[in-house]
Structure formats: C-alpha cells, structure tokens
C-alpha cells in the first residue's frame, strides 16, 4: 500500500471534486465562479477538524494553478513567512494556506500582511476556533470571505468512502476488498461527519482484515472494534466544545430531554467532567431558579457525586440531573432582578442608606441620627412570620422594582406573597 495516508491521497484536486460544502464552494456560489474566472480571494475557513478546510485549499490551488505553500501557525516563524514573500517575488502571486491561523503572531503578521493587502499573496487561513473571537482583526480585515464549514452529511461520507474503494490510483481500488454497502454505511455512521477520520478508519479496517487468496475480508466485528479506537467528538476546549455546552443549556432551557441527553453524551465523551458539572450547576440557578428551588441542591449533589465517581459512572447522576432540569418548571426572575439592580447602580441610580438601616453597634450612632429600625420578627403577620411597613431602599430609588415574579412552580407561591406584601405597604 502507498505510504501516504488514504485521507491525504484522496484530497480533491480541483474544486469540482470537492464533496460536501456545496453552499460554500458549489457551482452556484460566488467563490466557485470567482475561482473559475481566475480570481482567488483571500479567505478564512472555520470549522471542526476533518470537514474539508485543507482539502478546499488544495482544490482551489489545483483549479487556479497558483503556486501552493502550506504553513502551520503553531510551528512557523518569521523566517518561514519571509520565504513565502520571497517566493511571491520570484514566481508572482502565490497561494499560502495557513493552518491554525488563530495562532498567528505579530511578527508573522507584520511580515505578511502588506503582501496580502497588495495581492501578491492569496491567504487561505484555516481555524477550528471562532475567527471573530480568536483571529486577529488585522487578518480578518484582509480576508474578503469568512466561511463556516459544516460537518459533512452522512451521504457525503458514503460518497467519499466509495470513491476511495474504487479509485485504483489514489485509493484502494487496486486491492480486492470484500466489503458490503451496509458496512460502508456503518463506517460512515461512526465518524460523525469527519471525512479524515472516515478515510483513516476505512484504511485501518482494510489493513487489519484477514486476507484470503489475495482478498481482504472485512468483518463486522473488526469495524466495531476499530470504531471504538477512533474518537469522533471534537477537540476539548475548542469552539465546538463550547458550542456543545451552549446547546446543552439551551436544550434544557427548552425542556427537550432527548436533545439535552444527546449533547450531554457528546460532552462526556470529550472527558472534561469539570466543565460539564460547572455548567449544569449554573443552569440549575439560572434557568430553573425559584420555580423549583430544590433543583439547585439536587444538581449540586449530582455534580459532587459525579466528581467523586469519575467517568464513566459519573454519567448516571448527571443524566438524572439533566432530565430533572428539563422537566422542571423554569424561572430566571431572581438573577434577572439582580441584573436589573446592578444596571441601575451603573446608571447612577443610587442614594443614601436610610438612617434606620445603618449600623448602630457603636457608641455615638444615635448622635449621627442612626436608629429607628423596627424588628419585623416582633410583628407577626398571619403564617408568614413577621413583617412591618418601613422603607428599605434609599429614598432616591424607593419606587424601584427590580423583581418581576414568574408564576411557575414554587415561584407561584412566592409571587403571591410578593404581591400581598406590596398591597400592605402604606396602608393603615
């Protein structure tokens, strides 16, 4: 077999060979038409690993005929950039593919940016991180196109695998391989839209299969065994990881149990238990809140249990916590009220603390006019406990009302008490 990996050999040679990403570089897109007409714009390609960023860059180079230079920003220095600039002076315009562009340092930028701006260098940057968060604005401003690539569809992966199985020059078509369409479908299912992993898995499965009379016999058990060895869930602490956290919280907030468990499963497969438990705990107070105050304690107990158990057992209490939060009544009134109070302070809506609320635990407090506080516990009111009608806010903001109760779950009771106490204010 060829020493180069199958995923490398099967990269598209032109933009017409690109599989998937048709909304980015398909025949009806502006980028496709520009490249076909001889104009290649500088661009940023953003997306998860294995979904075609490098392949698209190679395909653009193959279609345009521009000299192609590839660098990785994690290992390249200013000297590498200067060599690219020198190459452009000799050969004319070059296409520079810069992987991990979010790690581009200032020295590299200073050496390269004027040449990108002049058009001597066409820059195609690839990143797994959100370019609006992690790519320097100077780079973004010189890239006319910023495109987010999507995970490849199942049928795209199947198409790639079949192409690799039948291509005798670049793929595995020169080998006699006994593999069924159902087995190809299963490999595609197990790679989660990652073309590189799909092709790598196919090659590994074929190499590991038994050979009889020159034919490789692919077995279902070998496919399942190899699939367990290849991770398909994305990079921990990358943009995709934070997107998963966001999707989990929004699914719980939307009371969708199945979606919530799906995203929890992805997160736990990444193995970062601490980040997951922190997010679950804040969700209990941010999204469930006063509608079901007991959930905060339940989720804390589940998170502490998960930390003590570790994975994989940690999934058991966390699954229970997520399902309970999904199906619980929900309220965000408490923290929204606090945010409203913080906003009022930032806007200068402040005043002096009323004298009767100030500290009186020292000699001379009365001379300063402090005192007159009435102790609510001395005045029982029904079954509530104790309450007296006195001002607590500074007089400058005494009419402020930050809390807006939501009539849901347990907060329905709190809302009733809140409105009742408001009705007692300033009444005989």
TrEMBL record:
Tree of life domain: Bacteria
Name assigned to this protein: Replication-associated recombination protein A
GO BP terms in the entry: DNA synthesis involved in DNA repair; DNA-templated DNA replication
Coiled-coil region(s): none
Keywords attached to this entry: ATP-binding, Nucleotide-binding
AAA+ ATPase domain ranges (all copies): 39-151
Transmembrane helix among keywords: no
SUPFAM superfamilies: P-loop containing nucleoside triphosphate hydrolases, post-AAA+ oligomerization domain-like
């Amino acid at each position: 077999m060829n020493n180069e990996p199958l995923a490398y050999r099967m990269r598209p040679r032109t933009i017409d060979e690109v599989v998937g990403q048709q909304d980015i570089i398909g025949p009806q897109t502006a980028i496709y038409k520009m490249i076909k007409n001889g104009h290649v714009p500088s661009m940023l390609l953003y997306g998860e690993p294995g979904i075609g960023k490098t392949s698209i860059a190679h395909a653009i180079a193959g279609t345009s005929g521009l000299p192609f230079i590839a660098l990785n920003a994690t290992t390249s220095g200013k000297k590498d950039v200067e060599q690219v600039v020198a190459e452009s002076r000799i050969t004319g315009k070059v296409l520079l593919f810069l992987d991990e562009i979010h790690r581009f340092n200032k020295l590299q930028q200073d050496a390269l940016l004027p040449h990108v701006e002049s058009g001597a260098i066409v820059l195609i940057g690839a990143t797994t991180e959100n370019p609006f968060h992690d790519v320097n604005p100077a780079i973004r401003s010189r890239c006319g196109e910023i495109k987010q690539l999507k995970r490849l569809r199942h049928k795209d992966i199947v198409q790639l695998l079949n192409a690799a199985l039948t291509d005798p020059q670049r793929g595995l078509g020169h080998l006699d391989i006994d593999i069924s369409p159902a087995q190809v479908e299963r490999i595609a299912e197990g790679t989660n839209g990652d073309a590189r992993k799909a092709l790598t898995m196919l090659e590994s499965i074929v190499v590991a299969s038994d050979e009889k009379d020159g034919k490789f016999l692919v077995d279902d058990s070998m496919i399942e065994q190899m699939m367990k060895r290849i991770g398909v869930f994305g990079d921990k602490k990358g943009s995709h990881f934070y997107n998963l956290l966001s999707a989990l919280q929004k699914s719980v907030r939307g009371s969708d149990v199945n979606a919530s468990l799906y995203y929890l499963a992805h997160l736990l497969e990444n193995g970062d238990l601490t980040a997951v438990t922190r997010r679950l705990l804040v969700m209990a107070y941010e999204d469930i809140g006063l509608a079901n105050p007991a959930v905060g304690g339940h989720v804390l107990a589940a998170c502490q249990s998960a930390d003590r158990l570790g994975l994989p057992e940690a999934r058991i209490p966390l699954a229970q916590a997520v399902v309970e939060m999904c199906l619980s009544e929900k309220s965000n009134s408490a923290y929204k009220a606090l945010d409203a109070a913080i906003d009022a302070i930032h806007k200068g809506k402040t005043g002096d603390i009323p004298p009767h609320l100030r500290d009186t635990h020292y000699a001379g407090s009365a001379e300063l006019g402090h005192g007159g506080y009435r102790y609510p516990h001395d005045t029982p009111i029904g079954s509530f406990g104790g309450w007296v009608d006195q001002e607590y806010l500074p007089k400058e903001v005494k009419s402020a009302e930050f809390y807006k109760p939501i009539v849901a779950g347990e907060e329905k009771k709190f809302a009733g008490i809140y409105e009742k106490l408001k009705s007692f204010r300033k009444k005989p």
